[in-house]
Amino acid sequence: MRGPGRDALGAARLPLAARCALGAYPLWWRERYGKDQESFLEELAGDHRPLGRAVLDLAVGSVRVRLRPVGMPQTAGAWRDRARASITWATVPALLALLLVSAIEQHSFGSATDAGTGALLSTGGRVAADAMTSIAWASIVMIVLLLIGWALVGRLAGTVARGRVGKRWLLLVTAPLVCGVVEIALSFLQTLEGHVVLVVGGHSLVGIHWRRSFYRSLGTRSRWRGC
Amino acid sequence: MSGRRLFPKPDPSLLVLSSLAGGPKHGYALMKDVEDFARVTLGPGTVFGCLARLEERGLVEALEPEDRRHPYRLTGAGATALEQQLAELQRVTSTGATRLGATRGRLSNGPAGAHT
For the complex shown, is ipTM > 0.85? Predict the structure, then answer.
């Protein structure tokens, strides 16, 4: 027979990677299968078998469960958590990447003129500057969409709790995400050339313009024209 | 001979149902059983993902937990689904085995037979 503090003790004995993989599952899953999975890993370790593949399998499984929540209880809390996780994963990584790109490129292309010489940029240079501006706007719009989505899931939770679940609430929750993806896609289409960094976060795919050397070459050419 | 498998591994759901046909088991016992009879190692993410899917369809059910672990058992619907799936596989394997036997017979008759 095992003692009362055994659960916490068992989890603490597992390596950090295994605990992280277990923690990557949604809350409703952990409540239902968490102890079973933890016990599985302990028995695996007890048989002196390597945990690496099992941990990898858990990590893949957690992504699968988040994308396709089979067996998720149809409760307000579970839906709210899922929607909020989706909003976060679809928005925050893209936001961080956008801010990073903006920070890197700001020195070279803050305006239509070259910051160092004051020479006018060529058409390509202005396109690049516009792209940077659109990225900055995208960041602002994404923050707004994030907040809207976050607020709407609260309304959804209230509706589910009152037993008045409607598809329109689900649409309202997903609409900001769809708008965010479309908006970023449009801003990406404004850029004519360059490389693409794909940020896959949750359910979204966002393209970001990224090639500093390309902009530099445009800037150099424009300086020649300016002189 | 190539190191890659020519055929994909058997479907985990089929392996889990086949294992539970032998009696209720918890996750780790199920994995070991599958390893014994199918020589396929299922990880915890696969095992419990599979059990969740099968549980949702009513093909397996969880029993009262024993020492933190839920044993799972096959339901009536699960037994029927497994029976149908195995019957389909049986048709394929028996047809394949019969035809393979005939082909081997032709091949052993000589090189000429191989081209006919």
Answer: no
